[in-house]
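Per-record layout

source: Coemansia umbellata
name: RNA helicase
length: 676
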Amino acid sequence: MAAIDDDFVMTISDNDEVPDLEDAGIESSDDTKPQSKRHKTTKHKGNGTSNKEEESEMAKGFMIDLDADGFDAVPQTLDFTLARASLKKRNNPGLYSSLDEKIAIARRAAKASKKSAAKEQDSDTAMNEEEEEEEKEEEEGEEDFGTQSEEDDGSVSEDEEEGSESSESSDEGESDAESESENSSSDDESEVDAEEEARKRAYFASSDEVPEGLPESFTVMNLSRQIMKGLTKLGFAQPTPIQAKTIPVALLGKDICGGAQTGSGKTAAFLVPILERLLYRPKHVPATRVMVLCPTRELAIQCHSVGTKLAGFTDIVMCLCVGGLSIKAQEAELRQKPDVVIATPGRLIDHLRNSHAFAIDQIEILVMDEADRMLDDGFEDELTEIVRACPRKRQTMLFSATMTDNVDKLVRLSLNKPVRVQIDPPKSAARGLIQEFVRVRSNKDEDRTALLAALCKRNVKTKCIIFFRSKLAAHQMKIIFGLLGLRAGELHGNLSQEGRLQALEQFRDGHVDYLMATDLAARGLDVKGIDTVINYNMPTQFAQYLHRVGRTARAGRTGSAITLVGESDRKMLKMAIKNSPKDKIKQRVVPAETLNKYRLKVDDLVDQVKSVVDQEREEKLMKDAEMQVTKASNILEHKDEITKRPRRTWFQTTKERKMSKDTSGKEYAGVNKRKH
């Protein structure tokens, strides 16, 4: 693929079509010309059908109902088949019981002890009454859980206002001081804002680069037949707004900063133009020309799955490089110089430093998905190292639902007059999302577990993701839900890659109703049919709140988000109300008698939870001991081979890496605190 001419300038009017690739200085080839030998032998196209049969199949695939109410902006189901093929093999997987088995044993033991106690006290009837009462509670459903709309003045509700009068009066002095400081510094802030806006105008490209008239169909974008067939196979009927605005600009080789609400189809927005341009690459010289970076393994796996399906009718080869999968298999794939590499920053740098015959000095397109998280969450040094290894003359595309426009951070990535493509207002939730808030009374933070159990036992019963701030809290709640008889899975960083994929598959297939997750699952992941998102804690950054609630109400669908809000979450609550339509904000009320009932149930589970946790700790110690024995045995048996093996290196020392991550986290927290 030839380089883009720096002097090439395009303007798109309302009636203009997207220019051909030849006009942009990119090598072109006619679909009627014979393809290269590599293209003929590809496994994706070796189906023996003639051109006429392909055209008829193509015509059938494009019989689309243009009057349909909606579309799927992402594939209908997550597909982890390719990722599972590269999983590391587990040693002796059947020696230890799973967490679900431990929970089942604890439940049976608790039931047996209750029955024996009931027999001793001759209170079998009381046991039966208790079980009947539980069944009755589950049947009542929404009756005890009222919801009410937000008031026009932006308050949560009159009840909450009355309940929090004392706390508000105690905060009057603090709020007056805050308002005085805000007034005193308003002039300085306005001057800084004006300077920042001037810098942005000078840094970003003119808005004329983005076409005003959005194409209503992929057929008017002059895309190749192979790409159109891939889009049809995935069920893409019409381009979403972010796709319609991004694809024409990306085909011209322009740098892009793209932002749109979660579930709007950003993945296809950068993959479609990448695949289209790769069709015209010089095929006689294999090289890695595209690099896609993702902050989490699961997002990279999802992106790789979408790209593989979109490229199913081409000869474009993709490679997935993330942690938790076989590094040897990845090295073998990289030696074949795949066209596209989708990776997480850490594993990519590992391959750059330790895998022979792999380099990114021929990269022509660099994409960063969820770029704001990678810029802010401790990845800055890794990104700097990756950008330094890439050629300066390249196309760079950044995408996120909360895309940053901080010029200083973007300059580090060497963007050249990037085009800003912002579809929805920044800091806004999806239109079909109903946001509900449950108040956690002051000094009653321990009631969160009881509130969550009551909500899930009585109201939210299927397809729900529950977000926690810590891995430990998510794991403990998984145990509590299991003991309560609720089918739950967990997704966080303490799990193996196989465990993480298994949790997502179980949740996707409906084998579990609840997914206890940290913010690992808040970015980009799409599971079709998620009805509800629950925030056990309000996140500390509003952008993270938007990403969490963006797991539902995706691609034009509807959904609800329930957040447990304490006294310390007032500012975040006000931001959520301010950036959402009034008719989409509700307060959910949990009656006091219901809360007390579930508080007692949760308290009764303390000993059982402790028993399960103790069993897990004992098994972990045994596994660690076995691992050390196996390691020592391997060293004795394969000493010569191990000593001759080159040591894997990193671009930072352990101390520098820890210091960099801590500094980045503190800076990120400080920036967001100032913003809020």
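summary: Residues 172-203 form the longest helix (32 residues). Residues 616-675 form one domain.
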